[in-house]
Amino acid sequence: MLMEYTLFGMKDKVKTAVERLKSFEPEDGYYLAFSGGKDSQTIYHLAKMAGVRFTAHYNHTTVDPPELIYFMRRQYPDVIAHYPELSMWSLIVKKKFPMTRLCRYCCSVLKESGGKGRTVITGVRWAESVRRKNTRGLLELNTYTKNRIVLNNDNVESRRMLENCRMQGKHILNPIVDWSTEDVWEFLNINHIPYCSLYDSGYTRLGCIGCPMSGKNGMLKDFQRYPKYQAAYLRTFARMLEARRQAGLDFRFKNADEVMEWWIYGASEPDENQMMIEQYFEESQ
Question: What is the pTM of this model?
Answer without folding.
Answer: 0.82
